[in-house]
Design goal:
Elements (H helix, E strand, L loop, with lengths): L1 H6 L3 E4 L2 H7 L9 H16 L7 E5 L18 E2 L9 H7 L30 H11 L3 H11 L5 H17 L3 H14 L3 H22 L4 H14 L2 H6 L3 H14 L11 H8 L9 H15 L8 E3 L4 E3 L3 E10 L2 E2 L10 E8 L2 E6 L3 E4 L5 E4 L2 H4 L7
Parallel strand pairs: 1-2, 2-3
Antiparallel strand pairs: 4-6, 5-6, 6-7, 6-8, 8-9, 10-11
Protein name: SEFIR domain-containing protein
InterPro entries: SEFIR_dom, TPR-like_helical_dom_sf
Organism: Streptomyces murinus
């Protein structure tokens, strides 16, 4: 069991009442020993891993069973997968396949093999279209989109709409939501093919749901914006409790190191002090000093940000299961702009979803790592790069 867990990318944990009792060691001797051992392995991995990227994925059959998810598994994302034959496992499947942009075949289209264009009765595009689309299967989605774009001028009617549909699929696959939305909208406006229209509409609905999850109330953009407002207003308690525990602990450790020679800190055990200061609502006498100092750091860092003149730039940048990078940039009446060819000034905020809530995980694209001193692990550039085409 230990070896299998160590070599797995993900471990799906199906939560039931019996499982929880065994996980929490609430059964009699000799009952549920396997789950008890598994629970010990999971708990140790969650608490002692170098960073907290979700590996263990709790799932429940019914929404009312969410409350059964044991700690610490309830500190990550969970999925309600249903208990009937028509259960919806789409979101879970996307995570397991590491492919959040791909849709399952039941949403209207299917492919005979990876990289081969979708089939719609009555639409007979040239073999060039299939070859262009297949370039994405070789890892070059942008190249495939460019080749398909060059073919548009030679196709008309439903064949042209079909190429637009393929471009929309590829844009969605690589996270370019607005571009995908435009492609599917053009399909709807220009095609009369019923199956193609139905598939385009279904994919637009999925895109809208993803857009709402990203930009809507309670989503990562909304949370990041409200956090920045609290930073500007100097609400240090609200600012502090919206941070992940890992970031609060790193900031507390950094503050202790910076003030380690102060008479008020000398009698304190630094590990105990760091834990006390890292609480959501620290009651330690030194808490107000730490929070005031860190609020000043935040205000200095985000001094150029203004809610009336800045907005979230581009498409969602999902990182793994629980993280998302928000990029704030200057805006003019909702349109992100640069002037006189200047470099676009941006603020990146790493967000993490814990349960239903999004929290600020760092002030840039790196995972915070508590320690003496605290450090950070940079997120690979290809996952977080910010391009003009994202605007």
């Amino acid at each position: 069991m230990r070896r299998e867990i160590e070599k797995s990318d993900f471990v799906v944990v199906v939560i039931t009442q019996n499982y929880v009792q065994r996980f929490n060691r609430q059964t009699g001797p000799g009952i549920g020993s396997g789950v008890r051992w598994e629970g010990a392995l999971i708990t140790a991995d969650l608490y002692h891993s170098r960073r907290e990227r979700a590996k263990f994925i709790p799932v429940v059959l019914r929404a009312e069973d969410i409350s059964l998810i044991p700690s610490p598994l309830n500190l990550t994302s969970w999925f309600v997968i249903g208990e009937k034959a028509d259960a919806d496992i789409t979101r879970l499947t996307r995570v397991l396949l590491r492919d959040p942009g791909e849709l399952p075949t039941e949403l209207g289209v299917s492919a005979s093999s990876p990289g081969v264009a979708f089939h719609f009765d009555g639409i007979h595009a040239s073999s060039e279209v299939d070859r262009a689309f297949a370039v994405a299967g070789q890892g070059d989605a942008h190249g495939a989109i460019r080749q398909l774009d060059a073919l548009l001028q030679n196709h008309f009617g439903d064949e042209r709409a079909y190429i637009l549909f393929l471009q929309g699929v590829l844009h969605h696959k690589i996270g370019e939501v607005s571009q995908a939305q435009a492609c599917f909208q053009r399909v709807i406006e220009t095609s009369g093919h019923s199956s193609l229209l139905e598939s385009a509409v279904q994919r637009l609905q999925v895109l809208f749901a993803e857009f709402q999850a990203h930009f809507g109330e309670g989503g990562p953009v909304d949370t990041a914006t409200k956090w920045l407002v609290n930073v500007k207003r100097g609400k240090r308690r609200e600012v502090w409790k919206t941070l992940t525990r890992e970031l609060r602990l790193c900031l507390a450790q950094d503050w202790i190191i910076a003030n380690e020679g102060h008479p008020n800190l000398i009698p304190c055990d630094r590990d105990e002090l760091a834990e006390a200061l890292a609480a959501k609502n620290p009651i330690h006498p030194l808490g107000k000093h730490c929070l005031r100092s860190k609020l000043q750091v935040f205000q200095d860092h985000y001094r150029r940000w203004d809610i009336d003149r800045w907005g979230a730039a581009g498409n969602p940048r999902r990182i793994g299961l629980d993280y998302e990078l928000i990029v704030m940039a200057p805006a003019d009446e909702g349109i992100l702009v640069t002037r006189n060819d200047e470099t676009l000034p941006v603020y990146a905020i790493l967000m993490r979803k814990i349960g239903f809530d999004w929290l600020v995980a760092n002030l840039g694209p790196a995972y915070p790592i508590p320690g003496w001193p605290p450090s950070a692990e940079e997120i690979p550039t290809e996952l977080v790069s910010f391009k003009a085409t994202d605007i």
